[in-house]
DNA sequence: CTTGACACATACCAACCGGTATGTATGATC
DNA sequence: GATCATACATACCGGTTGGTATGTGTCAAG
């Protein structure tokens, strides 16, 4: 009856991606299961076969969609780098030169969910915090290698600095989303890059 | 029949404050008018007498609750200062020494609404952006005075720097909200203060 | 060939949502 | 003292929500 007969993991993936898009636009609480199902062409039977409830779907989106995205975009470029500042500035420059239109209009999916769900649901907060701390951890480790290699000023405290860098980046994205101007986005990233300069030895 | 017989502006104020609290906790879209009315002890008749619809209530909260709060907390300390960096660092120190528990658990009301509503509703985005740009404007003006007074490094571009400062601050608050630790909040504010040091001449 | 688990589709439900229509007590105006 | 707008309260409504119960076709195992 169906075009692609019985491909459960593909169905699950379609649900995850549609849910991600809907959540990215409207947030989790305002995300409509009906809309998600309309986008996929599936029905509630499929959804509730793969996920026990809406919350589980949201948590799965964090773990199976957002986490890999973030790992590819933000974690990978910093892995094993001995010059973390240069690597991050290259990353920022890439983001500034060809800004993802989705990011400027809809913001960072991780940050969006953190702002919305952290005060509301503890399970969400813990899952999001795990991902966030992974990010901070990656930056911290990179900064430590930079300290060893001599790129980073010896006065820099890797943990606090990494937390601030990620926070400032999320802040820049968030404010630019509200302004909805790529110019503001570029300017803010430029200032962040300028801040990274002050960490050099 | 009522305790305080016919006090329309007081009633309106109670609605605004209850709406602010509900929105601060759950966001605008998830904010329930029923909850707001239950908190105030009022009914829908009162609500829809003072506000045409939910959206108008939300916009009024921004203008009549959040804007004055922000003006008192963030704008006033920077008004007419010739040493903006010192003033902002004093502000941050005050926030770090006795952090508002509501801010760490629920975040900045302005930022919460920006993240949630900017992509969803244009009227909200414009109103929020107006408030946000007022904030950036205050910081920009302060930095310009600092340039004249010699406190601020001549290489500093006031507008871009102000945008970044506000963004970084909102980022710090947002990330700390997710972490729900005052220690992280303090650390992030400390790094922001450290960044402000690099702007000195 | 039968059986049974899997992978969905369909139909349905109670709860809640924002919003409205109507009723009513109060206070000022003339 | 009658009139009338104001300031609410009460009752109700259609739509949407997340969730469930049941039906059905497919496929693999025995």
List the defining traits of the structure above.
homodimer, 201 residues, mainly alpha, Tetracycline Repressor, domain 2, 10 helices, DNA-binding
What separation lies between the terminal Cα atoms of chain A? 66 Å
Structural class category of chain A: mainly alpha
Average pLDDT metric of chain A: 95
Helix content of chain A: over 70%
Low-confidence residue ranges of chain A? none
Would you kindly provide a written description of the structure presented here, covering whatever features stand out?
Two copies of one chain form a homodimer. The termini of chain A are far apart. Chain A has one domain (8-197): Tetracycline Repressor, domain 2, CATH 1.10.357. With 201 residues, chain A is an all-alpha fold. Chain A has ten helices and no strands. Chain A has helices at residues 8-26, 33-40, 44-50, 54-75, 84-97, 101-106, 109-117, 122-149, 158-179, 182-197. The first copy, chain A, is 75% helix and 0% strand. Chain A is elongated and about 60 Å long. The model of chain A has no long low-confidence stretch (mean pLDDT 95). The interface between A and B is large, with 48 and 48 residues. The first copy, chain A, binds a DNA duplex (30 and 30 nucleotides) through α3.
Can you lay out the helices and strands and say which pair or pack?
Two copies of one chain form a homodimer.
Chain A (H helix, E strand, L loop, with lengths): L7 H19 L6 H8 L3 H7 L3 H22 L8 H14 L3 H6 L2 H9 L4 H28 L8 H22 L2 H16 L4
The structure holds a DNA duplex (30 and 30 nucleotides).
Give me a quick take on this structure.
Helix content of chain A is 75%, strand content 0%. Chain A has 201 residues and is an all-alpha fold.
């Amino acid at each position: 009856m169906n075009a692609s007969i019985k491909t459960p993991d593909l169905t699950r993936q379609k649900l995850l991606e549609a849910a991600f898009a809907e959540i990215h636009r409207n947030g989790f609480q305002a995300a409509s299961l009906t809309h998600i199902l309309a986008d996929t062409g599936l029905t509630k039977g499929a959804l509730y076969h793969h996920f026990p409830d809406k919350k589980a779907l949201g948590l799965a989106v964090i773990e199976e969609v957002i986490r890999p995205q973030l790992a590819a975009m933000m974690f990978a470029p910093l892995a094993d780098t001995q010059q973390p500042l240069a690597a991050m500035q290259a990353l920022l420059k890439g983001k500034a030169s060809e800004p993802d239109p989705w990011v400027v209009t809809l913001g960072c999916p991780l940050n969006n969910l953190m702002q919305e769900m952290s005060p509301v649901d503890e399970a969400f907060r813990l899952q999001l915090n795990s991902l966030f701390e992974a990010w901070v951890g990656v930056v911290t480790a990179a900064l430590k290698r930079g300290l060893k290699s001599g790129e980073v000023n010896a006065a820099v405290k890797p943990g606090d600095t990494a937390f601030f860098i990620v926070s400032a980046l999320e802040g820049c994205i968030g404010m630019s989303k509200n302004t909805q101007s790529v110019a503001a986005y570029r300017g803010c990233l430029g200032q962040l890059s300028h801040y990274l300069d002050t960490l050099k030895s």
